[in-house]
Design brief:
Length: 276
């Protein structure tokens, strides 16, 4: 019985090593397929998408247009267009100006909430960021799910086997083979756990390393308490009155913005981007 358990543990060890190496190769292949980012100045809406996907882009567009005097937020929570001879500087701005212009009495800001999560107006923006090596292709990292699942399953099998061997050893006698088997199974479980934890979090990343680096550098150079401008609004969101009009008032005990203004890519909730 001890010999069978030892052989089984060695087989599990071989399978885990193979699965972990296959998973690592798959992730490396995905990352190698990302185009090289050629340093350039990013637009406010590219930054907003990197920071928080479509949600942040929509909020940034409203904030930038209000700041520029192209839209006006009234006290009753409605957003009104402001006539201007200047053409929109970006298709994103054009989309929201057209949307608000369609409501002669003003558009209730809360009606814009659905624009945070739906619509195709950010498709070209997303494709541009992917082609520039700042975002992963949507869902590309999910192709590693099979190997990730195999690594996790082998880890659970090894855990169950270690429990069985330990129980048998405690109820009968602890032999050298039992100790060796438990040692091998412990290494298998640890290897599977480390590999799974390291690679699993990448499934929810959207920014490439170049995207992370570009965003973090601009976050450092443009803290949230600097003077409002397109870049600051894109990175940190619009003013509280605009945000609250669209999303509703925040809880009274909301965290300090300075403490919660980390990199959107690392936060892992971009909704197609990198932030939240």
């Amino acid at each position: 019985m001890n010999v069978i358990a030892l052989i089984a543990s060695l087989v599990l060890a071989v399978l885990v090593v193979f699965a972990v190496r296959s998973l690592a190769r798959r992730v490396a292949a995905i990352e190698a397929a990302v185009p090289v980012f050629r340093t350039r100045e990013l637009t406010p809406y590219e930054l907003a998408y990197l920071q928080g996907g479509q949600r942040r882009t929509a909020l940034a567009a409203i904030g930038i247009l209000v700041e520029a005097g192209r839209l006006r937020l009234s006290r009753d929570g409605r957003i009104h267009p402001v006539r201007s001879r200047h053409e929109p500087g970006d298709p994103i701005e054009e989309h929201f100006l057209r949307l608000v212009a369609g409501a002669p009495a003003g558009l209730e800001a809360r009606h814009l909430e659905r624009e945070l999560y739906s619509g195709s107006y950010t498709d070209d923006l997303e494709h541009r960021l992917i082609e520039n090596g700042l975002l992963y292709q949507t869902g590309s990292l999910h192709t590693m799910d099979r190997w990730l699942w195999i690594v996790g399953a082998l880890g659970w099998v090894a855990t169950a086997a270690a429990g069985s061997v330990l129980w048998a050893a405690l109820t009968t006698s602890m032999t050298t083979q039992s100790v060796l088997t438990l040692g091998i199974l412990a290494v298998v479980v640890l290897t599977a756990l480390i590999a799974w934890a390291h690679q699993e979090k990448k499934r929810f990343r959207h920014c490439t390393p170049a995207g992370d680096e570009a965003l973090e550098a601009l976050m450092r150079d443009n803290p949230w308490d600097t003077a409002k401008g397109p870049i600051t609004i894109a990175l940190h969101g619009p003013s509280d009155d605009i945000r609250d009009a669209i999303l509703g008032p925040r809880p009274a005990s909301r965290p300090n913005r300075a403490a919660s203004g980390g990199s959107g890519c690392n936060a892992g909730g971009c909704g197609g981007g990198c932030g939240g």
